[in-house]
């Protein structure tokens, strides 16, 4: 007689019950425990958080591994593999910035927009002789993947509060330094797009998803610029055939810096394409784009340029009349 047939039906029931419970507990541990663990870190958007954490952690590890060429080499291979799995092309966003009373407020607002964008690398370039403590500390607590650079605009070319010479260009050398960094550090196989985002504009989150898949140079309307409610490319049958621009409308590319993005490969394939301190105001965009593309090759975005997803907002210079009267500044030892 077999052992099972000698058991009472109660014993058999207990045995089956215990076996099922054991299997169930094992499943709980192996399967549910991992899900539960992951859920703690992924409360809302799985993809965006994972990607951001990856970028952030990689940058931190690169920082720690400085001066260890073997580690850096391995990390680069690892980074490439991770990026190859990331489905979305990366946005390289270059932002020139300069010290003024509203600088931290502008950067704070802009950084909160970027925090909501996946797979983006922020290249912040200070118009300054040295990197400032304000921007350095700001970026390190921003929780964003970033690169911090600096280059001063020569004093003769610099616009000041007392002498706001409208002919002087802004952010030119800073954007060029951002481009050089990209050409030097970004892997040629990386899929991506380059965008020049001034620190004072207002950006709709949809704009980033529009520009992300740019094949050559994409364009879209910009609100509140050039003396109009909206400056926009005129699109016929999916092609740009003109512009509604009125300010300096004879420019080869009469659009604002906020109104276009360039495919990363195009930037890497044209090392000569850059901005210049010696072109007249308003011609920076044309200076860069004429080396990269013809107007009829532009890719219209934002529903064939029918939507405004970025505004050329400009922040009023704050009224500090009372401040100038003080012998001790109101913000002594206090960053504003
Ligand atoms: C317009 C365009 O939107 C800019 O893209 C263009 O650079 C600029 O004209 C120009 O004349 O070159 P606007 O609002 O007049 O922009 O310029 P700002 O917003 O004052 O400056 C553009 C960017 O350059 C900002 O990110 C700003 O922080 C930075 N900047 C400005 C500097 O780095 N240094 C400066 O001395 C001034
Ligand atoms: Mn501006």
UniProtKB/TrEMBL annotation:
<dbReference type="Pfam" id="PF03360">
    <property type="entry name" value="Glyco_transf_43"/>
</dbReference>
<keyword id="KW-0472">Membrane</keyword>
<comment type="pathway">
    <text>Protein modification; protein glycosylation.</text>
</comment>
<keyword id="KW-0464">Manganese</keyword>
<keyword id="KW-0812">Transmembrane</keyword>
<feature type="binding site">
    <location>
        <begin position="312"/>
        <end position="314"/>
    </location>
    <ligand>
        <name>UDP-alpha-D-glucuronate</name>
    </ligand>
</feature>
<feature type="binding site">
    <location>
        <begin position="96"/>
        <end position="98"/>
    </location>
    <ligand>
        <name>UDP-alpha-D-glucuronate</name>
    </ligand>
</feature>
<keyword id="KW-0333">Golgi apparatus</keyword>
<dbReference type="GO" id="GO:0005975">
    <property type="term" value="P:carbohydrate metabolic process"/>
</dbReference>
<feature type="binding site">
    <location>
        <position position="200"/>
    </location>
    <ligand>
        <name>Mn(2+)</name>
    </ligand>
</feature>
<feature type="site" description="Interaction with galactose moiety of substrate glycoprotein">
    <location>
        <position position="322"/>
    </location>
</feature>
<dbReference type="GO" id="GO:0000139">
    <property type="term" value="C:Golgi membrane"/>
</dbReference>
<feature type="active site" description="Proton donor/acceptor">
    <location>
        <position position="285"/>
    </location>
</feature>
<feature type="glycosylation site" description="N-linked (GlcNAc...) asparagine">
    <location>
        <position position="304"/>
    </location>
</feature>
<keyword id="KW-0479">Metal-binding</keyword>
<keyword id="KW-1133">Transmembrane helix</keyword>
<dbReference type="GO" id="GO:0050650">
    <property type="term" value="P:chondroitin sulfate proteoglycan biosynthetic process"/>
</dbReference>
<keyword id="KW-0808">Transferase</keyword>
<dbReference type="GO" id="GO:0046872">
    <property type="term" value="F:metal ion binding"/>
</dbReference>
<feature type="transmembrane region" description="Helical">
    <location>
        <begin position="12"/>
        <end position="32"/>
    </location>
</feature>
<comment type="similarity">
    <text>Belongs to the glycosyltransferase 43 family.</text>
</comment>
<dbReference type="InterPro" id="IPR029044">
    <property type="entry name" value="Nucleotide-diphossugar_trans"/>
</dbReference>
<dbReference type="InterPro" id="IPR005027">
    <property type="entry name" value="Glyco_trans_43"/>
</dbReference>
<feature type="binding site">
    <location>
        <position position="175"/>
    </location>
    <ligand>
        <name>UDP-alpha-D-glucuronate</name>
    </ligand>
</feature>
<feature type="binding site">
    <location>
        <position position="127"/>
    </location>
    <ligand>
        <name>UDP-alpha-D-glucuronate</name>
    </ligand>
</feature>
<feature type="binding site">
    <location>
        <position position="170"/>
    </location>
    <ligand>
        <name>UDP-alpha-D-glucuronate</name>
    </ligand>
</feature>
<protein>
    <recommendedName>
        <fullName>Galactosylgalactosylxylosylprotein 3-beta-glucuronosyltransferase</fullName>
        <ecNumber>2.4.1.135</ecNumber>
    </recommendedName>
</protein>
<feature type="site" description="Interaction with galactose moiety of substrate glycoprotein">
    <location>
        <position position="231"/>
    </location>
</feature>
<feature type="binding site">
    <location>
        <begin position="198"/>
        <end position="200"/>
    </location>
    <ligand>
        <name>UDP-alpha-D-glucuronate</name>
    </ligand>
</feature>
<keyword id="KW-0325">Glycoprotein</keyword>
<dbReference type="GO" id="GO:0015018">
    <property type="term" value="F:galactosylgalactosylxylosylprotein 3-beta-glucuronosyltransferase activity"/>
</dbReference>
<keyword id="KW-0735">Signal-anchor</keyword>
């Amino acid at each position: 007689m077999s052992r099972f047939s000698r058991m009472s039906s109660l014993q058999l029931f207990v045995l089956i019950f215990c076996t099922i419970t054991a299997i169930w507990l094992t499943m709980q541990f192996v399967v549910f425990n991992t899900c539960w663990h992951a859920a703690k870190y992924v409360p809302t958007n799985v993809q965006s958080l994972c990607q951001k954490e990856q970028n952030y952690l990689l940058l931190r590890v690169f920082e720690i591994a400085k001066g260890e060429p073997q580690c850096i080499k391995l990390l680069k291979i690892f980074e490439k593999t991770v990026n190859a799995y990331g489905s979305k092309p990366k946005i390289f966003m270059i932002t020139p910035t300069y010290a003024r009373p509203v600088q931290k407020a502008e950067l704070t607002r802009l950084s909160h927009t970027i925090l909501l964008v996946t797979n983006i690398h922020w290249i912040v370039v200070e118009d300054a002789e040295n990197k400032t403590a304000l921007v350095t500390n700001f970026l390190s607590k921003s929780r964003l993947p970033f690169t911090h650079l600096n280059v001063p605009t020569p004093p003769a070319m610099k616009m000041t509060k007392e002498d706001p010479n409208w002919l002087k260009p802004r952010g030119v050398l800073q954007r060029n330094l951002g481009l050089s960094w990209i050409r030097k550090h970004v892997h040629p196989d990386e899929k991506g797009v380059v965008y020049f985002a001034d620190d004072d504009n207002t950006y709709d989150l949809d704009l980033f998803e529009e520009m992300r898949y740019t094949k050559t140079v994409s364009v879209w309307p910009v609100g509140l610029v050039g003396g109009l409610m909206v400056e926009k490319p005129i699109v016929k049958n999916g092609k740009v055939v003109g512009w509604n621009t009125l300010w300096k409308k004879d420019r080869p590319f009469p659009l604002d810096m906020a109104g276009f993005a360039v495919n990363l490969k195009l930037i890497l394939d044209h090392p000569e394409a850059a901005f210049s301190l010696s072109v007249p105001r308003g011609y920076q965009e044309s200076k860069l784009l004429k080396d990269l593309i013809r107007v009829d090759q532009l890719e219209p975005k934002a529903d064939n340029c029918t939507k405004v997803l970025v505004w050329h907002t400009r922040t009023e210079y704050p009224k500090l009349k009372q401040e100038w009267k003080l012998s001790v500044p109101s913000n002594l030892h206090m960053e504003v």
